[in-house]
Amino acid sequence: MVMENVRARVIIEGRVQGVFFRYHTQEMALQLGLNGWVKNRRDGRVEAVFEGDKNRMDQVIQWCHQGPSEARVTKVHLNWEDYIGEFEDFAINY
Hints:
Number of helices: 2
Number of domains: 1
Largest sheet: 5 strands, mixed
Strand content: 35-45%
CATH topology: Alpha-Beta Plaits
Order of helices and strands: EHEEHEE
Mean pLDDT: 96
Structural class: alpha+beta
Radius of gyration: 12 Å
Number of strands: 5
CATH class: Alpha Beta
Strand order of the largest sheet: 4-1-3-2-5
CATH architecture: 2-Layer Sandwich
C-alpha cells in the first residue's frame, strides 16, 4: 500500500480553549505519525495544520470534531492544501 502524503488546515470552533485541546491534538498527531502545529487563535478558536499520510489524516480530522472530553466542538472548518513536507514534528505554537 502506497502512502499518500497530504496537508490539511483545520479551524475548530466551540469551547476549545482552556480544555487542553492543543495538548491532546499534539498527542493524537504524534500517535498517528503526523507533523505540523496547533495553536489558540485570538478569536477563541483553535487552528491546526497537519501533514502526513491521508489515511491517518482522516483519523485526526475525525477526532477534531470531538476533541478532548472537556471540549465542546460546534464547527470544524477543513481546507486541503498542497503538501509541502516542511515539518519534522508536531508542535504547539504560542
